[in-house]
TrEMBL record:
SMART domains (UniProt xref): DEXDc (SM00487)
InterPro entries tied to this protein: DEAD/DEAH_box_helicase_dom (IPR011545), Helicase_ATP-bd (IPR014001), Helicase_C-like (IPR001650), P-loop_NTPase (IPR027417)
Keywords associated with the record: ATP-binding, Helicase, Hydrolase, Nucleotide-binding
GO molecular function, one term: RNA helicase activity
Catalyzed reactions: ATP + H2O = ADP + phosphate + H(+)
PROSITE patterns (UniProt xref): HELICASE_ATP_BIND_1, HELICASE_CTER
Protein name: RNA helicase
């Protein structure tokens, strides 16, 4: 049978399409086979790793150092709730852990999960990501957990613990417990939108309610709802809070269970400003920057040499001051919070200090004298000073290093704030040599990991839309 040219071309085209379709099917089949092979290979590796991790843990149980560390961990308040916590975790996708300061939730809860999976023979499948609001907390907690597990430093060989923060990472293929900042975990969404491969997400300090933290909760809630309806990848979420806001997060995640632990704090003595004045016999001169009179003397002069004062916080008092035969009226600042009857048991010097102090100003001379007093009269322990900003930190560090008590090359006066490198931030956790005092001057960055109440002073930059400029706000 003879075909014309057009019929021949059509026949060839159909045949080519059949061959091309066959190639596509074969390609898809090949890709599926490769994917199944890779998945099968990963499964075999994870199973083998699970067996190895269980053997390593069993052998580590007999080490004297590890046994001693386990005793210390068992003494933490959160340890009493381990079995209850693991039972709830098996039955629920989301749990809120509410623990008071010092209960051990930050270091112990992730380890409860890791140890349970290893002992159950599925440690190779474990992949826990624990978020911290600040990078210094992520790094310091990772190092602490590594020490408790008798493992090398985070991210090194034979260590299951790692960390990842901005511009610094210590992790490898063996990492089963990763501590990171909230931003790092959110960045993973660009390549892993369902958090595939992650078994547990632990959100620590969830009560801080940052923008990134709240967005992470939205993402996690969406993932939990999707996996509940589809029955696919079972991600477990743990929210850890140090406040009574736990029920708020429980409601947001469909009334998930809440488990609470008591805290364990060290004894703390509270001294107020007047107590410090009295204890160190401090004198506040009228020309000190922390004195209200200093503020008045630096106000802009009005017409005819009169003082133009617009002080909303303090009040002025006209007192008679004499020099020889001349008598003049002068202005004196009085602290609006001062009440003589409230300080009957204090000395006259303390009364004068309280009367003239400007409470809106940080008294660096007082801080220097107080740190020196503590160094002389208390033999052991580090000193932690909270200040509202980097400028204040630099000023106090300069004053202390210029002081003969702390000016030597072996003295440890360490700043701590967000602009320091990771290596410089880690210095504050190192132990100084014997008879060397460590003084840490920090912003509220130290609150998360050190858990000590700060001074109540706060400074932050805010953008004013009306003025179209950045301004610094003090509270």
């Amino acid at each position: 049978m003879l075909l014309n040219k057009s019929e021949s071309n059509a026949h060839t085209s159909v045949g080519a399409q059949k061959v091309e379709g066959k190639d596509v099917l074969e390609s898809i089949s090949s890709e599926k086979h490769k994917s199944m092979t890779a998945s099968s290979g990963l499964l075999v590796r994870q199973q083998a790793e699970s067996v190895l991790l269980k053997k390593e843990m069993e052998s580590k149980m007999n080490l004297p150092k590890y046994m001693k560390l386990m005793e210390a961990r068992a003494a933490l308040p959160i340890a009493k709730l381990k079995d209850q916590f693991l039972g709830l975790l098996r039955e629920n996708d989301v749990i809120v852990v509410c623990g008071e300061t010092g209960c051990g939730k930050t270091t112990q809860v992730p380890q409860f999960i890791l140890d349970d999976m290893i002992e159950s023979g599925v440690g190779g499948f474990c992949n826990i990501v624990c978020t911290q609001p600040r990078r210094i907390a992520a790094m310091s907690v990772a190092e602490r957990v590594s020490d408790e597990r008798c493992e090398p430093s985070p991210g090194s060989d034979n260590s299951l613990v790692g960390y990842q923060v901005r511009l610094d990472s210590a992790r490898n293929e063996q990492t089963k417990l990763l501590f990171c900042t909230t931003g790092i975990l959110l960045r993973k969404l660009s390549t892993n939108k369902h958090f595939e491969g992650i078994t547990h997400v632990v959100v620590d300090e969830v009560h801080e309610r940052s923008l990134l933290g709240d967005f992470l909760l939205i993402v996690l809630k969406s993932l939990i709802e999707k996996q509940a309806s589809s029955g696919c990848h079972k991600l477990k979420v743990l929210l850890m809070s140090a406040t009574v806001d736990a029920n708020l997060f429980s409601r947001y995640f469909g009334y998930c269970p809440v488990i609470s632990a008591e805290g364990r704090t060290h004894p703390v003595s509270t001294l107020f400003l007047e107590d410090v004045y009295e204890k160190i016999n401090y004198y506040l001169p009228s020309d000190s920057p922390a004195s209200g009179n200093f503020m008045l003397s630096n106000k802009e002069k009005g017409p005819k040499g009169s003082s133009s004062v617009n002080n909303r916080r303090g009040k002025k008092s006209l007192v008679l001051s004499s020099w020889g035969d001349d008598s003049t009226l002068s202005e004196e600042y009085i602290n609006p919070n001062y009440s003589a009857c409230s300080y009957n048991t204090y000395s006259e010097r303390t009364h004068q200090n309280l009367k003239r102090v400007n409470e809106d100003v940080v008294d660096f001379d007082l801080l220097e004298d107080l740190v020196c007093y503590i160094d002389k009269n208390y033999p052991a322990g580090a000193i932690l000073v909270f200040l509202p900003g980097i400028t204040e930190i630099d000023l106090l560090v300069d004053k202390l290093t210029a002081n003969y008590q702390f000016g030597g090359p072996s003295d440890w006066v360490l700043p701590l704030h967000s602009l320091l490198s990771s290596a410089d931030q880690r210095k504050v956790f190192q132990s100084p040599p014997e008879n060397i005092r460590k003084v840490i001057v920090a912003t509220d960055i130290a609150e998360t990991s050190i858990t000590i109440d700060e001074t109540g002073r706060h400074k932050e930059n805010r953008y004013n839309l009306q003025l179209m400029k950045l301004s610094s706000s003090h509270t």
